[in-house]
Amino acid sequence: MRLIQYIILSFLLFTSATNAQVLKIATLAPDGSDWMNRMKAGAKEISERTDNRVSFKFYPGGVMGDDKAVLRKIKVGQLHGAAMPSGSLAPYYPDSQVYSLPLRFRSFDEIDYVRSKMDAVLIEGFKQSGFITFGLSEGGLAYTLSKSPVSSVADLQKLKVWVPDTDAMGISAMQTYGINPIPLSIGDVLTSLQTGLVNTVAASPIAAIALQWHNQVSYLTDLPLLYVYAVFALNEKTYRKIAPADQTIVKEVMTRTFLGIDQQNRKDNIAAFTALQQQGIKLVQPDPDTLNEWHERAEASVRQMVEQKIISPEILNQLNQLLKEYRTEIAHK
Question: According to CATH, what is the number of the domain 2-330?
């Protein structure tokens, strides 16, 4: 009898160990940042609630390389997921960039209304593209940060402008503005600002501070160019290997965790906008006489993106309809 009990116990222990999943997750976020602290807390809760059947190992600070390198490692199974800007996943899911179309949003209220209707659409789109996500984390509204003042498109055309090397949308938009951008990975931007390879970036206030770009620029143009967000993307095949009951725990905890990050980032971005000015960065108002040109070129760039199949007309129409709905009905109540 004892032998049978021993065999059964050994089998159960072996099965448990075999089914245990250690999820290896990479991110550019530095260790000790609010993002990492929240993710580690969520991972700890998951590990405890699943009796260590699911645990996480994080690789912060870009130690696994830039986003392209990380995605290659996910593809071969060396990593299982990553936290990264949505634009890095655009090759897998182009429509994920819909929130980042140039000059779409006028306020955070508009953003909140659109996201309340469209976030679920994007999450499903990521899933169909092979990635499980647990909500979207606001990166914020990105502004032009430069070493010389930019109040018009003509001013911008004279500068050396950075775009992420994975951002086909950004490259297309810059070309429509008459700019030949300099594509670089995010990890190369600080050095490039220091050496003068680039002298202009687009970034949200918290990103500019977190990545130390703010120390290399002197001006911020007070015209929000686009909205950026990040995701925690987990390879779907890896996720499906987790027992269904444990999947429920992972989804519940990480969705709650990412909602907290999303909400905190809004507060941090508002504070960071003020902090940049307090640290000496001068606010530049766009020239009223050329403001129409900014918007006309933005519309032209969006049309070009649809023609180039960078983004689908269906997702664009959905966004435009929600913005129209908000501006004509909700905002005037």
Answer: 3.40.190.170
- Phi, psi at residue 256, to the nearest 5°? -65, -40
Reported pTM: 0.87
Give burial (CB, 10 Å; 0-12/13-18/19+) of 59.
middle
pLDDT, residue 333, reads: 64
Residue 145 forms beta bridges with which residues?
Answer: 201, 220
Ranges of H-type helices in the chain: 2-19, 34-49, 67-75, 108-128, 153-157, 168-176, 189-195, 205-210, 236-240, 244-278, 291-307, 313-325
Q: Looking at per-residue confidence, does 6 or 333 come out higher?
A: 333
Cα–Cα distance measured from residue 102 to residue 87, given in angstroms and rounded to the nearest whole number: 13
Closest CA to 197 of 205, 185, 206, 207: 185
Assigned token pair, 295: 């918007």
User: Residue 284 pairs with which residues in a beta bridge?
Assistant: 221
- pLDDT single digits (tens) 10-31: 443 344 444 689 999 999 888 9
Instruction: Specify the pLDDT at position 265.
Output: 94
Task: Please check the confidence at residue 134 and state whether its pLDDT lies above 60.
Answer: yes
Q: Is 210 left (phi over 0), alpha (psi -120 to 50) or beta?
A: alpha
